Here is the input.
Amino acid sequence: MQQTLSKKILQSKSFLLLAITAVVLLITYIVSPGAFNVGNAKQILSNISYVGIFAVGVACLLISGGIDFSLSGQATFAMIMFAQILKSFPSLPWGVAVLAALVYGVIAGSINAFFANGLKLMSFICTIGMSSVWTGLATWYTRGNIIPIRNASFSALSATYIGNTPIPMLFIFMALVVAGYSFMLRRTRFGRSILMAGGNPAAARLAGMNTGKIKSILFVNASVLAVVGGLIWASQQNVGSPAGLLTVMPEMTGLTASILGGVSFMGGSGSLGGAFSGVLLINVLAYALQVMGLPTWLITFINGSLLVVALTIDGYNMRRRFRHFGIKGGGGGGGMVMPGMSK
Amino acid sequence: MERYLEFAGVGKAFPGVQALDDISFRAQSGRVLALLGENGAGKSTLLKIMSGDLRADTGSVILNGETVSFTSPFDAIKAGISVIYQERQLIPAMNVMENIFLGDLPVKSGLIDAKKLKSDTKALLEKFGLSIDPEIPVMFLSTAHQQMVEIIKAYRRNSQVVAFDEPTAPLTDTEIEILFKLIGQLRDEGKIIIYVSHRMAEIFQVTDEIVILKDGKFVKTLNTSETDEQELVRSMVGRDIGDTYSHLSRNDSMGDVLLEVKNLASPYVRDVSFTLRRGEIIGFAGLVGSGRTEVMRALFGADPVLSGEIKLDGRSVSFKTPKDAIDSGIALCPEDRKEQGLVLWRSIEDNICMPVLSKLRKGLFLDTKACERVALSSIKRYDIKTPTVDKIVMELSGGNQQKVILGRWTSELMDTKILILDEPTKGIDVGTKAEIYQTVCDFAKLGIGVIFISSELTEVINVADRIIVMHEGHITGSVTREEATEESILALAMAQ
Here is the structure.
C-alpha cells in the first residue's frame, strides 16, 4: 500500500511539474546566482497569488466541460468598478466595494452560464465576445486611463508578508483556496458530480445529475474567483487599470497550467494540485527567463508554446486511449468535443 | 486476372474480448458476399479493419494479391475500399454533386468546374436511374436518397470493394428494391460486394455466398443457392437456440399494475399505451428507429412529453428531468453504454455511485468508505471481473460494463421499481448474455417491473413475458411469449 502510494506520487503530473520547476530553479541559480534574492521571491510569489486564484476557477470549469475566455475582461471591469467606488466614496470601507465587485462577478458569470445553458451557444466563442464587451466598457468608462487606488488598508493586504519570509499573506490565502477546492473536488458530492458531468454529460444526466446546474455554478464560480484575482492584482499595483491585466491574461496562464497539470481539455479528469503545479512552473519559468535577460517576446513565445505542447500531450493521450479501446470518434480528432463547443 | 479481397488470419482483441480470431475467407469480384452472425460475432470489427478505422493485431488483408495495410479510412478509400455505414458520412450542408465529388472536385484553371461537376453528377445519377436533384443540399434528402448518394460517391471513387453495413435498416420496401437494383448493377460491373445484414430474406434475395461468423471466429462459407434459413441459424448460433432460454429460472407470480402509460406522445412517438405489472418483463421489439428508445426517453423525463398520461402505482406523474424519474424509482440502462451510460474514464465506483451520491454523505463530505462498500457489493453480486473498485470502466469488457450499469441501478441504496433495459446485450459475448437474461428474470422475481428492449428477435421473444412491437413511432401490436414467433413479430415491426 505504502509502495503504491509513493509510486502514485512519483507518476503524478504534479510531481513531474514540480521536478521541472526545481530543474528550472537550479539552472537559474547556476546561470545567475544573483537572481536568488528576497525581492525576486516576493515578486514571483505575489504573481502566483492572483494567477493561482484564476487557475482554480479555470480548472474547475474545464473539468466540468466548460471554458471561459472572458475572465480577464471580467476581472478588469470589476477592478475599475472597485477603484471608482473607492474614489467616489473615500470614506466607505473597502470591504463594501469588494462586495459590489463580487456581486458583479456573480452577474457576469450568470450571463455566461445563460449563454451556454439557456441559449446553448458555444462558450468557446461566446466568452471571447463577452471579454471584448467587458474590456470595451471598462475602456470607455476610464477613457483608457488608470484609476489610482489610495486606500492604505487595502494596499496593505498585498504588502503584508508572513514574518520575515518573502511569502505574502495573500499567497497563503491562495494556497488555502487551492486546498479547499481540491478537497471539494475529491471529497464532496458536488466535486464528484463535476467530474462525472464533465466526463460524459449525457450519461450524467441520465443518471440523475443536473449537468446544466453544475456547469452554471462553475461559470459563476470562475467569475467570482477571477474578480478576487483581479482585486489582488489591484491591491498589488494600487490601481484599477483597463489594460493591465489584459497584457498578462491570467486565464490563459490558468488554462495552460491546468492542461499541463493533467486537466483534460475534454473535461472529466484532472486535479487542482496538478493545475497549481502548472501555475508554479509557468511563473518560475517566466521569471527565470526574465532574470536570464531574455526579451519579453521570447517569454510570451515560450508561454504560447507551452500551451500548444500541453494540448498536444492531452490530445495524444486521448487518441491513444480511444485507439486502444477501439472506440469510434477518437481517431483524427473528428469526434473530439471541445469544451463549450458541444450543445 | 481475377479480382478478390481476402482476409488471411485476421485477429483483433479488445480488453477482455477477442473480437476477431484468425478470420480467413475470400470475396470474389462480381459476387455479393454476405457477412452473417449474431451481434458481437465480429462483423463490425471486420468492417472497421477493412475501412481503416481499426488495425488488425494479426493477419492481413489482401486485395488482388497485394497485402494492404491502412492507417486511416483515407488509405482504405485510396486503395479502393468503400464502406457504407448506417450513419451517413456526407456533409449535410453541401449539395449532392459536391458530396459525390468530395475530395476530387473537377477543376478548370484553378476554379471548380461547376458545369462539368453538374453534368458528371447527372450522368452518374442517370446511369443508376435515380431522380435526385444534384443541386439540393443532402440534408434535405430522405434517408434512402442520402444512402444512394453515398453509394454513388463510392462508385465514383472507382471503389473495387463496396461494403454495406445493415443498409436496409432505415429503408422502406420500395427503397430497398431500389437499393438492391443498385447493388446488382455494381455486382454486374465486377465490384467486390460485402453485405452485412440480419435480415434473412434479404440475404437470400441479394447475395451469392454467405460467410458465417460466430464469437469472432470464422464458421463456414455457404453458397446462398444451396442453403436455407435453418442451416444458417444453426451455423450462426452453433447450438440449439431454445437451450439458453429453457434453462432460465423465471418469475411466475406477477403483481398488480405498476405502470400505466396512456396515449403518450413526444416529438418522436405518438399514441403509445401499455401497462407493466410488478414482476413482469415486457419486451419492446421493432426495427431500429421505430421509436422504442424514444418511448423510454419520454417516460424517463429525458425527452419532453407532449401529451398523454403516465401513472405510477396508480398516481399520475410527470417527469421533467431524468432525476425526477429516478427519484420515483425508475431506472434506465441506455442503448449506447459508452455514449450515454458510462463515464468511461472514471472508476467503477464512481459510475456505480452516480445516482446515490446524495445518500453517501457524511456531513458536508462524501463517505468514501460507504461508496466503496456500495461498489464492492455490486461487483460481487454481478461478478464483475475487476481487481479493484478503482479500475476505470473503459478498461472493462462490454459485458462487465453492462454489469456496472446494472449495479448502479440495483445497488442497496436504490429503490428501483421499474428497470428499463435498452439493448442490454448489444455487443456482449454469448456467455455474459445468458447471465444477463437470468439477472433480468431475477429482477422480476424481486417484484421489479422490467422493460426489455432488443433488436434481437429470438432474445426478446424468449426473455419477455409479453412483447410490444413498434413501427414508426407507434405501437403496432402486443403478443405474449407463448404466441410470439419471429415471423409474427417481424410482420408487426414492418407493419405488414
